[in-house]
Amino acid sequence: MPAVAYLSRNRQKALFHYSLTSFLLLCPLIAQAKLHVVATLPDLGSLAREIGKEKIDIVVLAKPNDDPHFIDPRPDFVASLHDADVLIDAGAGLEVGWLPPLLEKARNPQLGIGKSGRVKASQGIRLMNIPTTVTRASDAHPSGNPHFIVDPVVAKTIAQRIAKSFTALDPSNAAFYDANCKKFETAIDAKLQWWRGAFQLLQDQHVAAYHDSWPYFAHRFGLKIDIFLEPSPGNPPTPSHLTEVIQKMKRDHIKLILVEPYQDRRIAEKVARSTEATVVEVSQFPGGMPGTDNYTSVVNQLVKLLADAMK
Ligand SMILES: [Zn+2]
After folding, report:
1. pLDDT (tens digit, 9 = 90+) per residue, 73-83?
2. Distance from the CA of 172 to the center of ligand 1, in angstroms?
3. Domain that includes residue 289, residue range
4. In 3-state terms, the chain is what percent helix, strand and coil (to 5)?
5. How far apart are the first and last CA of the chain?
6. Which of 129, 216, 269, 272 would bridge 277 by S-S if both were Cys, CB 3.0 to 4.6 A apart?
7. pLDDT given for residue 32 in this prediction
8. How does the average pLDDT of the chain come out, rounded?
9. How far is the centre of ligand 1, averaged over its atoms, from the C-alpha of 16 (Å)?
10. pLDDT band at 13 (very low <50, low <70, confident <90, very high)
11. 158 and 219 share a domain?
12. C-alpha 233 – ligand 1 centre gap (Å)
């Protein structure tokens, strides 16, 4: 056997062993590689955690007490979006004031509309309160109301779409994502009856709110949260509008005003003093109120706070 051929075969063997050892060493890393997920808002982040659990790393851009319409972008948002395998956003104009410039800077083609790495929650959702006339540029709901995630039946649909995205990008854990999604849906279904029951005797009562955040929640549970301290979504209350609100609240005996952590509670208190109403602080986001660390606990708390205050 020629010496050259012998050496070459030895080198081939060595190379084969090196490759095999490297592969075996890397296997656990490959098996444990997590999906990098970015959610724009804490409620979407909670749904992603329900589905992905330990198989994902997640960054949530907005804090629980941020106004979801107006987030101050931080430089690390761009880096997170650049590295992301999946982006979950609400859509329907909710993040239109701050997300598009970040996505442009992040230059991540995986997050494009229609890609497996993009879950735009509003797709397939029938939006409520779509304006019939041209709205002011400052209106925060120009294409319809974007606060649909707080409806738990809608949340189940979003959870399914998140599971589909995770499965497409990480098919080896398809059964895991599917099982977690079903578990979440079962948990929501188990609660729905109790949530509906809590509002059973409160169907015709009207409630006021600072911002129009609750039409989907109200529709789901047969409530009427339909008078707002803001003259239009995202525009601050004016004295003339508040005068109208006070007159209407007195006339219709509205005794409850919902205010979220990032809204001006002093204005709500002022209206409450003129109408003998009660101000109730609520949040649509996990972590926005004490005792709400996930999506289901947010809905649970909302139902309890509202039902107790309306009785
Ligand atoms: Zn809004």
Report:
1. 999 999 999 99
2. 38
3. 195-310
4. 50, 10, 35
5. 96
6. 272
7. 63
8. 91
9. 60
10. low
11. no
12. 6
Task: Report how far ligand 1's centroid is from the alpha carbon of 175 (Å).
Answer: 36
Whether residue 284 is contained in a domain is answered as: yes
* Surface-to-core class of residue 12, CB atoms within 10 Å of its CB (0-12 exposed, 13-18 middle, 19+ buried): exposed
**Single pTM value for the model:** 0.89
Report how far ligand 1's centroid is from the alpha carbon of 93 (Å).
9
pLDDT at residue 6, as a whole number: 46
Clarify whether residues 135 and 207 are in a common domain: no
Using the mean position of ligand 1's atoms as its centre, give its distance from the Cα of residue 214 in Å: 9
Output the 3-class SS for 205-236.
Answer: CEEEECCCCCHHHHHHHCCEEEEECCCECCEC
Please tell me the predicted confidence (pLDDT) of residue 245. 98
Q: How far, in Å, from the CA of 243 to the mean position of ligand 1?
A: 22
What's the structural domain count of the chain? 2
Better pLDDT: 215 or 143: 215
CA of 213 to the centre of ligand 1 (A): 5
Domain CATH code at residue 262? 3.40.50.1980
Q: Is the pLDDT of residue 57 over 90?
A: yes
Is 268 contained in some domain? Answer: yes
Q: Are 221 and 303 in contact (CB under 8 A)?
A: yes
- Considering 137, 159, 189, which residue would you say is the last residue of a domain? 189
Euclidean distance between CA atoms 160 and 165, whole angstroms: 9
